[in-house]
Amino acid sequence: MTEIRTPRLLLRSWHDADLVPMADINMDPQVMRWIDDGSVRGLDGTAEDIERWEEEWDEEGFGLFAVELLASGELIGFTGLSVPEFLPEVMPAVAISWRIGSPFWGQGYASEAAHATLEFALQDRGLDRVISINRAGDDASENVIRKLGMVTERATNHPVYGYPLHVHAIDLTEYRA
Ligand SMILES: CC(C)(COP(=O)(O)OP(=O)(O)OC[C@H]1O[C@@H](n2cnc3c(N)ncnc32)[C@H](O)[C@@H]1OP(=O)(O)O)[C@@H](O)C(=O)NCCC(=O)NCCS
């Protein structure tokens, strides 16, 4: 799979050593607040997640990148692409998403990784459209979405949890990083 370097980050494949730091991120209630039912995930759940994310790379040719801080080599979370099968009404689609450990918020890392991911979607994968789905109230994600130039397309509800969702999209043929 492709590795991407940005000024401060390395977007790369998953390593065995990522399990513990990714589980630390998944065990932080602040991080998980707007995701699924808001519950945290421990080591076993995170190991299952990483396995699923790796399978998506094999099956789709895209997926979630492990995001490493170049300066320190630390894993700070993920950013990448996935097929949002949980929301049939938007399919077919490819969605961008992110999860960054709370000690690393507020430094522009999510936006830097997300810009690089859209560039990858367009240049490497030839995708012309990417969507983003977030829970209403997740203002930090909506801030990243705005900065990417995504446009809000619809409001709906999570098919399993029932809470309101916002769906945004970007036409990558118009995209300028
Ligand atoms: C959503 C999430 C990734 C956003 O992270 P974030 O750090 O707030 O987002 P950004 O990378 O855009 O950084 C934001 C701030 O960093 C600051 N910043 C500092 N240095 C910067 C730099 N070099 N470049 C850009 N911004 C910088 C800016 O003030 C920016 O805020 P602004 O856009 O209001 O000016 C993070 O809150 C998260 O992981 N949440 C939990 C997971 C989650 O909810 N995922 C979404 C599920 S759909």
What does this structure look like?
With 177 residues, the chain is of the alpha+beta class. 31% of the residues lie in helices and 27% in strands. The protein is built from five helices and eight strands. It has helices at 19-26, 29-32, 43-60, 109-124, 139-147, and strands spanning 4-5, 9-12, 64-69, 75-82, 95-100, 129-135, 151-157, 164-171. It has a five-stranded antiparallel β-sheet with strand order 1-2-3-4-5, sandwiched between helices. Strands 6-8-7 form a three-stranded antiparallel β-sheet. β3 and β4 (75-82) form a beta hairpin. The mean pLDDT is 96.
Rg, please?
Answer: 15 Å
Secondary structure: number of strands:
8
Multimeric organization:
single chain
What structural class do helix, strand and pairing data support?
A: alpha+beta
- Coarse morphology: globular
Biggest sheet: strand arrangement: 1-2-3-4-5
* Chemical compounds bound to the protein: coenzyme A
Helix content: 25-40%
Give the DSSP E fraction (strand runs of 2 or more residues).
25-35%
Strand count, sense and barrel status of the largest sheet are: 5 strands, antiparallel
Overall mean pLDDT:
96
Low-confidence stretches: none
The topology string of helices and strands comes to EEHHHEEEHEHEE
Number of helices: 5
